[in-house]
């Protein structure tokens, strides 16, 4: 998931959107950018959740579970705020 995030961010960086990144309109590059970027950020949020569940079973990393899952919940909330502002 982290690799998919990196590939998505790199691709979104290369395929830049039109000024203001208008939603649903613009060039093909704009549409591609606005499609790839949210998917890549959701991959990173999913990776945080997966790590939290993976660390749950290990004694050494059990304290990271709360941090990882809190990061996921916070990131999902901020992603929802961003999506609603568009």
How is this structure best described in words?
It contains 3 helices and no strands. The chain has 86 residues and is an all-alpha fold. It is elongated and about 50 Å long. The longest helix has 28 residues, at 28-55. Helices cover 74% and strands 0% of the residues. It has one domain.
How many domains make up the 3D coordinates?
A: 1
Estimated radius of gyration: 16 Å
Q: Given the helix and strand composition, which structural class is it?
A: mainly alpha
Characterize the quaternary organization of these chains.
single chain
Please mark out the parts with pLDDT under 50 across 5 or more consecutive residues, or reply none. Answer: none
Instruction: Write down the overall mean pLDDT.
Output: 87
Keywords:
single chain; mainly alpha; elongated
Q: What is the secondary structure topology, with strand pairs?
A:
Blueprint: H1 2-14, H2 28-55, H3 63-85
Helix pairs in contact: 1-2, 2-3
In short:
This protein has 86 residues and is an all-alpha fold. It has helices spanning 2-14, 28-55, 63-85. The model has no long low-confidence stretch (mean pLDDT 87).
């Amino acid at each position: 998931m982290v690799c998919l995030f990196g590939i998505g961010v790199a691709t979104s960086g290369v395929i830049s959107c039109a000024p203001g990144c208008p939603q649903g309109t613009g060039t093909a590059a704009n549409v591609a950018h606005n499609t790839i970027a949210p998917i890549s950020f959701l991959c990173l949020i999913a990776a945080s959740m997966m790590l939290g569940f993976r660390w749950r079973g290990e004694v050494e990393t059990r304290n990271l579970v709360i941090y990882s899952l809190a990061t996921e919940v916070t990131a999902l909330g901020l992603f929802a705020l961003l999506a609603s502002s568009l």
